[in-house]
Write a structure and sequence with these properties.
alpha/beta, 12 helices, five-stranded parallel sheet, globular, binds N-carbamoyl-L-aspartate
Length: 308
């Protein structure tokens, strides 16, 4: 594995291998001294052209706990705000001899494009509405720790599918691992072409949250991404919540042990009620700690090589 740009780059065996290493990395989080020497002398640059709390900080901590030197560059505060092109910014940073480049960018395909310009290992930390592979890996890892094998387990993904790279990566990852996936959204937030895509990729679609929830072994709520919406995709926030939110009433429809996931940041009261976000079966914070372990694993596999 040279880069991690898409879940499509990974075989089922490679995913299993990433998860095995992640579970070893998970143990590091429990230690008093959280450092492994495996990436000593390597340099990782986190280049974020979009806002981020958990993805950026977990890549930063992951690199540091593996003893890499990590620096962060964001669009605000870099020469990108002076009009420098993405290519020039990336080539400038890579001319310093870095080993890994973690990139988040609002343009779909940006990470793939960057990987063609540089020698460094590139990790896609979210490219527009396209993919977010480490999020899908951490989601599947979290669910597997809770449910065991995902083969034949039913996962419902509910929310703003159109604008969601988390959904696009998760569909690939969950179906690869044998899960049965049903995606639910209002018609205006269902991606165009979903009928033929769902037939080829082997997942189901629905507009009816109340019918899907009782069947689900796990539910993944997605954020309503208002920053990517040019016009009105639903009449009002209230109507969205009534139709598609995981409300207190809907919580009762879920199996009592079905994990509730959300990649964050959550719009509490819009797609997810506080009662659901804070329910005993919510794994939202577990996703964050698993995310760190999975990102340590990904950086290790990309930068340390199998021989280390
Ligand atoms: C997601 C993202 O940025 O794509 N969040 C994340 O990485 N934790 C989902 C979102 O922004 O809604």
């Amino acid at each position: 594995m040279k880069h991690l740009l898409s879940i499509n780059d990974l075989s089922v065996e490679e995913i299993a291998h990433i998860f095995e290493t992640a579970s070893e990395m998970h143990d590091v989080q429990k230690r008093e001294v959280k450092k492994l020497p495996v990436l000593r002398g390597r340099t990782v640059v986190n280049m974020f052209f979009e806002d981020s709390t958990r993805t950026r900080s977990s890549f930063e901590i992951a690199g540091k706990w593996l003893s890499a030197d990590v620096i962060n560059i964001s669009a605000k505060g870099s020469s990108a705000s002076k009009g420098e092109s993405l290519r020039d910014t990336v080539l400038t940073v890579c001319a310093m001899g870095i080993d890994g480049l973690v990139i988040r960018h609002p343009a779909s395909g940006a990470a793939h494009q960057v990987s063609q310009w540089v020698d460094a290992a590139v990790v896609n930390a979210g490219d527009g509405m396209h993919e977010h592979p480490t999020q899908a890996l951490l989601d599947a890892y979290t669910l597997q720790r809770r449910l065991g094998s995902l083969a034949g387990r039913h996962v419902a993904i509910i929310g703003d599918l159109t604008h969601s790279r988390v959904f696009r990566s998760n569909i690939q990852c969950l179906t690869k691992l044998g899960a049965e996936v049903t995606v639910v959204a209002p018609p205006t937030l269902m991606p165009s072409g979903i009928d033929s895509w769902s037939r080829t990729a082997g997942f189901a679609t629905s507009y009816d949250v109340d019918a899907v929830l009782p069947q689900a072994d796990a539910v993944m709520m997605l954020r309503v991404q208002r920053e990517r919406m040019a016009g009105g995709f639903f009449p009002s926030a209230r109507e969205y919540t009534v139709g598609y939110g995981l409300t207190r009433d809907r919580l009762r429809l879920l199996k009592p042990d079905a994990p509730i996931c959300h990649p964050g940041p959550m719009n509490r009261g819009l797609e997810i009620a506080a009662d659901a976000a804070d329910a005993a079966q919510s794994v939202v914070l577990e996703q964050v700690s698993s995310g760190l372990a999975v990102r340590m694993s990904v950086l290790y596999h990309l930068l340390a090589g199998e021989e280390s």
